Amino acid sequence: MHTSAANLNTQFGELVFLDRFEAAAQAGFDGVEFLFPYSYPVEQIAHRLCSHGLRLVQYCLPAGDWGGGERGIACHPSRVREFRYGVEEAIRYARPLGVHQLRCLAGLPLPEVAPALARQTLVENLRYAATLLKPHGIALLIGPQDDFITDDEQARAIIRDTGSDNLFLQEHA
């Protein structure tokens, strides 16, 4: 049996999403991860996890219009309310799915927003999310990718600036 999780966004792509759980179990994985569960009723995902003896390792907070090219909204000052609602939605899924860590995608920098304001918004949103997640036993993860956070050093500085003990750097495999 594998000790790592299958990424259902990149593996078993020949199958529809909900059928990928069975494929992961048949391939010997004991865990799965994916970007977002929000298009499916939480009961359907919980059933797939339970039926196939899988644990859910992580998924992401809502990240805006993914299909439209958005890669997170946490650094967008005009979308703070939407971000905070998304944290609450993520918790509604996390509790019945038994997940203990969620990832936050910072978002793409917007040319009309000063970098300092975008960073301040990101820090405040991360502090809010980490604080809200902590009583549920859910850690918040960030890390560099093709968005506002470009490297581990920047991610560590943002973590430090939140002052949160529930925000962590996503480790890379």
From TrEMBL:
Gene3D superfamilies in UniProt: Divalent-metal-dependent TIM barrel enzymes
Domain Xylose isomerase-like TIM barrel per the UniProt entry, residue ranges: 21-169
Name under which the protein is recorded: TIM barrel protein
Alphabetical UniProt keywords: Isomerase
Domain of life: Bacteria
InterPro entries: Sugar_Epim/Isomerase, Xyl_isomerase-like_sf, Xyl_isomerase-like_TIM-brl
